[in-house]
Amino acid sequence: MSAKPLVKVDLFRVHKEYLIPAIAQTVHLAFSSDPLIQWLRPNAAPWAEQDTGRWSWQYRRIQRIMLQGEVFTSANVKQMTEDHPGNGRNKLSTDTPISAVAALPGKQPAASSHKDDNAGAVAFLLPPPGRKPWSVSRIWLACKLSLLDRLAPAHDSGARDKRVEMLLDRHEASSKLLESRYPRQKLWYLEVVAVHPSLQSRGLGGGVMRWILEHVHDDHLYLECTREENVVFYESFGFRVAEEVELVDSASQTGEHVFKHWVMVHPGKLTL
């Protein structure tokens, strides 16, 4: 019996802000039921619902990732549907997102009005320190964001500030732990990877992961897995659990005060 062919997905680097709405919409839809987002935003409206403030926050967040790291996207949903019409199930849980640690602001244009225009798949990568060079466009974006943060700060009003702070503090601690184990100059962070919900169960999650591992070459790569059932998926690509993290909001009176995630590291050699 012949092996099922691997799905190939091509991503391209995003340099222009006009692509942000399509990317933000896919992130909102893919992360709407993610355990991390639900823990950060208890009793709030789902991310998938349109909200001006939430949209502004997400837009600014992606701008900041473009400044500090690398934002990648695939072709839009329509093109990806034509290129990958398959119906085999992906091993990754249908709510694909991995991590959403950067609770940063966002503002600007409205969301993509049609599903077909949304990004098929997206990835946010933060390279090792000093790896990303400064350019005129990057300096301009840094100045622009500094001004926007002062004059028009953006905030996800549905998120509990205490929980966001807990998450960021724990992320920093995990990062320092990994930096003590691996060369800091070769350690990448995969903050977000997501496939549009309408495209899931086609093996695209695996295709995106293979592309990312090829992109970072032999460097180390870490992520935060927010679903226990997805740990096996990442292990199939060579990731290993470095740390299990449990965040507890002791002030909460509900049963949703605990959130658990798995910090996973890839050693730097591509595993298909």
UniProtKB/TrEMBL annotation:
GO terms for molecular function: acyltransferase activity, transferring groups other than amino-acyl groups. Residues 182-269 form the N-acetyltransferase domain. InterPro entries: Acyl_CoA_acyltransferase, GNAT_dom, Trichothecene_AcTrans. Pfam families: Acetyltransf_7. Gene3D superfamilies: 3.40.630.30. This is Acyl-CoA N-acyltransferase. It comes from Penicillium cf. viridicatum.
